[in-house]
Amino acid sequence: MPPLLRRFLVLCASIFAIVTFNFFLFHVIPGDPIRLIARSQRLSPEQVAKLREAYGLDGSIFSQYLTYLKNLAHGDLGYSFALHENVGDIVGRALVNTLILLTVSTTVVVLLGIAIGVFAGSRQGSKSDSATVVTSLVFWSLPTFWVGMLLVFIFGVWLGGLPISGITTPNAEYQNYFQYIADIARHLILPTLTLALVDIAFFVIITRTSLIEVMSEDYMLTARGKGLSQRTMVWKHATRNALLPVVTASVLYISALVAGAIQVEVVFSWPGMGLLTYNSVLARDYPTLEACFLIISVAVLVANFIADLVYRRLDPRVAVA
Amino acid sequence: MSLLDVRDLRVSYGSADGDVHAVDGVSLSIEAGEFVGLAGESGCGKTTMAMAIPQLLPRNARITSGSVTFDGVDLSALDEHAMRAYRWKEISVVFQGALNALNPVQTIGSQIAEPIRVHDSSVTSAQADDRMRELLEAVGIPSRRAHDFPHQFSGGMRQRVMIAMALACRPRLVIADEPITALDVMTQAQIIDLLQSLSDRYNLAMLLISHDLSVLAQTCDRVAVMYAGKMAETGPSQDVFGESSGQVLARHPYTQRLLRAYPNIHRERVFIDGIPGSPPDLSKPQKGCRFQPRCDVALTQCANVAPELVALNDRHFAACHLLDADSSGVQ
Q1: Which of A41, A108, A167, B242 is the most exposed place for a label (fewest CB within 10 A)?
Q2: Residue A7 forms contact with B (CB below 8 Å)
Q3: Does an H or E element contain B311, and which?
Q4: Could you tell me if B223 and B249 are in contact, meaning their C-beta atoms sit under 8 angstroms apart?
Q5: Contact residues, chain A, for B171 at CB < 8 Å
């Protein structure tokens, strides 16, 4: 069997398993959506039964599962119990918002992390190396929501001037498309800064360790023997070899961010997947939750596939294997 | 004046158990175009001594005394920046283990061409490319393979790539550190032939490090045998490794035992005669001759006084007390 086909079949099987697992997971966790809806009103048992029927929660769990699979195959993600809207539309909007935050912050975090990691790793044992490691670890150990709130306080309350919530200014009127983009960009600054401060250590430490390891390889002695400058040795010969573990780390990071930088999205009211998942759990909104988890799972699988492609670009040896 | 003149070189490695004196007062000179072999068992300081020449020692190693004079310039006094001009341009290295010595993510062509432009910025990339292809052909690799990666080559081919790379800047001295270790015998012979023909063609001086005495005997003008960081014997290869009417010409007991430890296909020798014991721990101070504990012809002073190199003729030297008193031979 060609490796690509095998990989594709594994991918399909994984998605099916995840869909099944998610479905049963949310039905066994305690809490009943109908009871949540009916909580505030006095409803007769007949009315409750009618509600149950309307939401398709009357059959056995297995028949519900089959219905879910059938609808899913038609691209129908269901109807939200809590938001009374098609789940596809809700999740679609949230996903776009999350992707905007994810793209910007991942780019910043990964690129800055690599640059700082290479800087520190190529000066192993020096004062600037220790200072970099200690600083990034201090930020790494701070809770994300706390850093977010601190930034809200500094930039929102104290200095002012930067938006602290949402993705656009409410009721803003835009003359043209650029103003709209600029508005989103301004709203992106604080969430991105929060993620960068806290998460950059992840990439700094991995890049640094990997670079130090690579620097002791035999081919680095060859590079030195050739009379190359330290700069050429580090950037041209070491960094590309050192990036392989960073690619893995980036994939893990991106997958985690699709699941929602929950803390950041909640602090800055960023209407993305994290905030949506959080609210859906509180409302026991099964269809939305299932859709969220499905998208998160697919994102993880896709991210891994992309990592595979990047590996091939970075390391010619992978292409043969 | 010799092309390379190493004088009384001492190199030590810092370690948790104290300094290890890997090279302890070794002198060696190489003339332009000369092929010099360096022999000795693992850990005797061969590689340390060789890497001290282009100042490529690891961070925990330092030259404690002595000088490395190349073409009249003491390299050990140069800083890293000044040293860079000598590396590869004047002195290049064929490293041990070509798979690890080549960068896995760069094509062999770019790795060969790289130092050409680093050392001479007037060379265009097209010229460097031409030169790289010419070098590949010279070592017997079709130049169309320039875009391949190291892992796509066999062990012998990789060693050829390494050799082509070492010649890229037309250096005057090439240090070949165990270039044929881990290759099969046929490939070993090919690589040695290649090294010899290239050194003739480009008038290279070469320091060939190997523990294969037969290879050194065959290829080198002069050989040096090291033991535990000291020079044991040095001289023209026929004087050190040769025989005359069935008698070995080597004068140091270590060299003699080393020669007996090798199988000889020309003679019916069934047993390979090893040397019992192991080399001394170089992190401890050494008193007397370092080979004395393993030497079966040791004298009383061998345990206390370190022997100096004794001139046996104007080119052949050995460091042994047996040669002090009478130079009629050690049996």
Answers
A1: A41
A2: no
A3: strand B309-311
A4: no
A5: none
Q: Token pair for residue A168?
A: 């656009």
DSSP annotation of B303:
G
- The answer for residues whose C-beta is within 8 angstroms of residue A101's C-beta and 6 or more apart is A188, A191, A192, A257, A261, A264, A265, A270, A272
A192-to-A90, A111, A261, B12 alpha-carbon distances in Å = 23, 13, 10, 51
Half-sphere exposure of B216 (CA within 13 A, CB side): 30
Q: Count other C-beta atoms under 10 Å from residue A118's C-beta.
A: 21
Burial class (CB in 10 A: 0-12, 13-18, 19+), B103: buried
Burial of A31 (0-12, 13-18, 19+ CB in 10 A): exposed
Please state the φ and ψ torsions of residue A156, each to the nearest 5 degrees.
-90, -45
Q: Are B272 and B255 in contact (CB under 8 A)?
A: no
B93/B163 Cα distance (integer angstroms):
8
- B50 residue type, one letter: A
Q: Identify the weakest region by mean pLDDT among A31-35, A264-268, B77-81, B191-195.
A: A31-35
Nearest 5°: the CA angle B216, B67, B56 is 65
Least confident of A118-132, A202-216, B24-38, B311-325: B311-325
Q: Which of B168, B205, B200 is nearest to B87 (CA)?
A: B168
CB neighbours (10 Å) of residue A121? 26
d(CA A94, CA A97): 5
Q: CB distance A222–B95 less than 8 Å?
A: yes
Residue A6: is its pLDDT beyond 80? no
Compute the nearest-CA separation of A247 from chain B (Å).
Answer: 15
Whole-structure pTM value: 0.79
Distance CA A224, CA A217 (A): 11
Chain A touched by B95 (CB under 8 Å):
yes
DSSP assignment of A73-93 = HTT---B-TTT-SBHHHHHHH
How many whole angstroms separate alpha carbon A8 and alpha carbon A245?
Answer: 24
Q: Do A37 and A31 touch, CB atoms closer than 8 A?
A: no
* A241 at B interface, C-beta within 8 A: yes
What is the model's pLDDT at position B278? 85
| Domains of chain A and CATH, by start | 87-319 (1.10.3720.10)
Lowest-pLDDT range of A28-32, A217-221, B187-191, B224-228: A28-32
Chain B residues inside the 8 Å CB shell of A225: 54, 56, 87-88, 92-93, 95
Q: Which helix H or strand E contains A251, and what residues bound it?
A: helix A244-258
Q: In what order do the strands lie in the sheet with B309-311?
A: B91-94, B173-177, B205-209, B35-39, B222-227, B230-236, B317-319, B309-311
Q: Which of A94, A61, A59, A89 is CA-nearest to residue A75? A: A89
CB B217 within 8 A of CB B132: no
B156, two tokens? 């012998």
ipTM of the complex: 0.87
Strand partners, B69: B5, B74
